[in-house]
Amino acid sequence: MNRYGLTVAVLALALAGSGCTGDPAPSAAPKVSDGPTDSTLSPPSKARDFYVDPDGAAAQEVRRLEAAGRTEEAGLIRKIADRPNAIWIGDPDPHGRVADITSKARQAGRVPVLVAYHIPNRDCGQFSAGGAASAAEYRSWIARFAEGIGDRHAWVVVEPDALAHILDNCTHGGQAGERLDLLRNAVETLKKQPNARVYVDAGNAGWIKNPDDWIEPMRRAGVPQADGFAFNVSNFFTVEESVAVAERLSKGLGGVRYVIDTSRNGNGPARGAQGDDAWCNPKGRALGTTPTTETGLDRVDAFLWVKRPGESDGECHRGEPKAGDWFPEYALELARNAK
Predict the structure, then answer these.
(1) Is 123 a catalytic residue?
(2) DSSP one-letter string for 67-107
(3) Domain extents for the chain?
């Protein structure tokens, strides 16, 4: 994911056409445990208010290292495991997992950050390929996702890279319009849940060469109906670089708010790197600002760790772990380089 974009001319061509039909039947909803009601919870005001997954890959790595007596390395990985990371959902039926996570978070008095990641032709069939088989299947899937949240609190980042990928050839032949419709539908569906905050991924400072050309696609994707947009997801641009572009997007949409992924931007991007080397497990990167809603920036709702540090971007044509798998050496490098 997160390659750089093409041209405005390609964008204009890609936006022609849309369409989708059908509604496959959802499976039965699993029973979830009860916890404190969300009426007792306030929106997160500090990093500690976001949910920390006790069974994430980083937490499992800490337990493995401690059992092996590798306490120094375990301590480094705790810089990841003990902080709130987003939980990516791409399960064929998301209901059970989303319900389980939001229920556990409610019981802990925390708010989870979830990523909806199942758009058709996800990642243009590259390292993170997958997703729903059709537009109709995706509509059903996002409805099941929303049902899984119910009335519990959750922040949801909608479909990393899906909007920016309309600049790529994978959305030719009317697929760009369909994708925009699906993103808007996802926003509308998730926002029916009373305590869901929704941010549509809008790319990063390197992908968007001319922010003014990006306003209309974001509008069509439902960003004004959401709580805002997510920026720099899985990428490495600094907060300053991200804000410089995101503020232009925000102003073009009437001042909509946004969140920034700071999971791995502690050293900024790999300057001068090209192609996969720029975005796919680039060397020398570092953990960024710890997740918090206290950003000090007027329109920035939060710094989040949307990308889960230590999980691979993909094989990168170098034989590295596949996308989403734990990458021990990379995790240690991110932690060691953290300021």
Answers:
(1) yes
(2) HTT-HHHHHHHHHHHTS---EEE--SS-HHHHHHHHHHHHH
(3) 57-337
CA R_g for the chain? 19
38 is catalytic: no
Per-residue pLDDT of the chain (339 residues; tens, 9 = 90+): 444 333 344 455 445 433 333 333 333 333 333 333 443 444 455 545 999 999 999 999 999 999 999 999 999 999 999 999 999 999 999 999 999 999 999 999 999 999 999 999 887 767 777 789 999 999 999 999 999 999 999 999 999 999 988 876 677 767 888 999 999 999 999 999 999 999 999 999 998 888 998 999 999 999 999 999 999 999 999 999 999 999 999 999 999 999 999 999 999 999 988 888 899 999 999 999 999 999 999 999 999 999 999 999 999 888 999 999 999 999 999 999 998
The amino acid that residue 279 corresponds to is: W
The one catalytic residue in 123, 181, 227, 301 is 123
Q: Which of 49, 53, 161, 168 is catalytic?
A: 161
Q: Which CATH number fits domain 57-337: 3.20.20.40, 3.40.50.300, 3.30.750.24, 3.40.30.10?
A: 3.20.20.40
